Amino acid sequence: MKWLRRVLTLLMLLVVMAGAALWAYSRQVLPQTDGEVIVKGQTGEAVALAAADGAGDVKIERDAQGIPTITASTSNNAMYGLGFVHAQDRLWQLETHRRIGSGRLAEAFGEPGLETDKFLRALGVKRAAAAQWAVASPEARAALLAYTAGINAYIQTAMKARPPEFLALGLQPEPWTPQDSMAWAIMMAWDLGGNWTTELLRMRLSLTLPVNRIDELIPPYPGNAGNAGEPADKPLITTDYSALFKGLNVDGKLGQTALNFAPESGVEGIGSNNWVVHGTHTTTGMPLLANDPHLKLSAPALWYFARMQAPGFKVAGATMPGLPFVVLGQNDNVAWGFTNTAPDVQDLYLERIKPGAPDEYQTPDG
Questions:
Q1: CA torsion angle 41 44 45 46 (round to 10)
Q2: Strands (DSSP E) along 227-354, which ranges?
């Protein structure tokens, strides 16, 4: 019986030690929400949550729900603070956003992410982000650089332990770049566009149905009746895909191959709406804006609520980890929101590649 007691005692000690280690890890990995955080500013100076330009402090206060209020000397320094709290609370989400935009999911998740990576790299999201960064306005560049510096200040100086997702996958957080932010903005535009799947559906239907029957199932844009200040425009003329296929010898399997990359249709929880009530219908005499851009359910959520304020700058609302701006929100003068109207913003092209020259394709002129 002595050996049994020793084994049980040893097991209890191991459980206590494991519990203590888990408690210590949880204390390190959770974001610090009180006291003073010393990080390196963009200039390399050690200051109290250094501002993006190294001048002055950034003050972050959280309410009972953990929503941060960021107070700084300039709007860009406030965006620096936003990058810091995004990294504090959503570092793994940022890493996921970066890998999606760069087509690097397979590095983290292995074989299941490979085909998605191929598609994303063919789509050229990161190349488009680099091209946009090259022509970005000075104001946009300053905001993105400040936000990027805030994320990296947390990663390089204030992070005490890697979040559990990084530990489980054996990954280290990489420095954020402004191009990562732009790539995520492009991915959101791509995700919210989505009409390319309708084009694929029309293409496949054209293998068996004439254009007029397809238009009954998927009505084209009907045109605008116009008004006193705007002339009417004509209905959209739809393409006769069947004739196009015959001319190019397109195999019907092409549509299925492309559809393999399409997002699921009819995903539960997706929707978007907003509306405004005129001040003549409210008790205060002021207009009311209601905005409900609910997207796919996710954990963590896509949105992140925050407040930012600096001299001449005060804004609050829903931000998106990866971007330095309040996407939906309000300032002292106006409130704004958006909803997805499902516009036709994506086009697909059938290309005949020149044999022996994969970078060249046929045009109407040869």
A1: 70
A2: 273-277, 288-292, 304-310, 313-319, 326-330, 335-336, 353-354
The pLDDT of residue 52 is 47
Number of CB atoms found within 10 A of residue 83's CB:
29
Q: What pLDDT, on a 0 to 100 scale, did the predictor assign at position 233?
A: 64
Q: Vertex 68, ends 140 and 151: CA angle to 5°?
A: 45
Q: What spatial distance separates the first Cα and last Cα of the chain, rounded to whole Å? A: 90
In the chain, % helix, strand, coil (3-state, to 5) comes to 45, 15, 40
The whole-angstrom separation of Cα 125 and Cα 43 is 31
Structure tokens belonging to residue 46: 């050690």
Give tens-digit pLDDT for 40-80.
444 333 334 544 444 457 888 888 888 999 999 899 999 99
pLDDT at 354 over 90: no
The whole-number pLDDT of residue 41 equals 45
Dist CA 76 CA 149 (whole Å):
11
Please report the pLDDT score of residue 331 as a whole number.
95
* Confidence (pTM): 0.80
Which residue carries 């309410």 as its tokens? 63
SS3 of 46, please?
strand
Whole-number Å distance between alpha carbons of 29 and 292: 33
**What residues contact 217, with CB distance under 8 A and at least 6 apart?**
205, 209
Where residue 37 falls among pLDDT bands split at 50, 70, 90? low
How many helices, marked H, and strands, marked E, lie in the chain? 12, 12
As a whole number of angstroms, the distance between CA 97 and CA 179 comes to: 12
Vertex 336: Cα angle to 330 and 341 (nearest 5): 155
Q: What CA–CA distance (Å, rounded) separates 58 from 71?
A: 6
